[in-house]
Write a structure and sequence with these properties.
Pfam families: GTP_cyclohydroI (PF01227). It is an enzyme of class 3 (hydrolase). This protein is of the alpha+beta class and about 210 residues long. The chain has 2 domains: about 55 residues, GTP Cyclohydrolase I, Chain A, domain 1 (Orthogonal Bundle), CATH 1.10.286.10; about 140 residues, 2-Layer Sandwich (GTP Cyclohydrolase I, domain 2). The chain is built from 8 helices and 9 strands. A hairpin with a 4-residue loop joins strand 1 and strand 2. The longest helix has 17 residues. It binds guanosine-5'-triphosphate and zinc ion (ZN). The site of guanosine-5'-triphosphate has 10 residues, from helix 5 and helix 6. The site of zinc ion has 6 residues, from loops.
């Protein structure tokens, strides 16, 4: 399996996973299958430990990404000082409590001071922090902090709406619950009208 990694300096095509890590993880997953009462030697499961080992590395590839550098790689001086909103950024992450997926959408806005960044870089920052073991609150704050410290804008707003598999497939089993988290800096914190404008643009019922 191949996938692209952005190491902050550019996109690196990863031809193969780290062999040693993949091998060791696969052994653990083979043992897990046995403990769960399965037969890891049966045809359908033969390659499963190795597949899972690769899938888990894919789902945690954010640890190899440098979100600050992603933004710095496309920062442009510009005098635009109005709100920039990138909404409906799909995200897939995994809760650190159960290692089960949570997924949904991120809505990110900032008001440039002197610099703008490439729009795709906002989505890449979301990706870099989402592809780790996370809690939704920390994911929200990390995205906000990263944009604030690199671009030094007049304000940043991040809203994430997500469904947690650990609440749907197991545990309390609430299939339709959606968790919303938000974090703000600068103008979005101080100015209610600015925050309302953001909520209007993303179509949120939060305000
Ligand atoms: N705050 C927060 N909690 C999360 C997130 N993802 C999962 N959780 C919660 O983490 C908690 C872990 O609680 P525990 O009581 O230790 O785990 P548990 O016995 O599996 O809990 P239940 O899910 O209630 O069965 C649960 O309430 C989960 O719903 C997240 O992103 N943010
Ligand atoms: Zn969980």
């Amino acid at each position: 399996m191949e996938f692209s990694l952005n190491n902050g300096k550019g996109y690196v095509k990863v031809e193969s996973y780290d062999d040693e890590t993949t091998h060791q993880l696969a052994r653990v997953y083979e043992q897990s299958l046995r403990l769960l009462g399965e037969d890891p030697t049966r045809e359908g499961l033969e390659k499963t430990p190795i597949r899972v080992a690769k899938a888990m590395q894919f789902l945690t590839q954010g640890y190899n990404m440098k979100p600050d550098e992603i933004i710095r790689s496309a920062m442009f001086r510009e005098d635009y000082q109005q709100m920039v909103v990138v909404k409906d950024i799909e995200l897939y992450s995994m809760c650190e409590h159960h290692m089960l997926p949570f997924f949904g959408k991120a809505h990110v806005a900032y008001i440039p001071r002197h610099h703008i960044t490439g729009l795709s870089k906002i989505a890449r920052v979301v990706e870099a922090f989402a592809r780790r073991l996370q809690v939704q609150e920390r994911l929200t704050t990390q995205i906000k902090d990263c944009i604030q410290t690199t671009l030094n804008p007049l304000g940043v707003a991040v809203v994430i709406e997500a469904q947690h598999m650990c609440m749907q497939m197991r545990g309390v089993q609430k299939q339709h619950s959606v968790t919303t988290t938000s974090d703000f800096t600068g103008a979005f914190l101080k100015n209610l009208a600015t925050r309302d404008e953001f909520f209007n643009i993303i179509g949120s019922r939060l305000h």
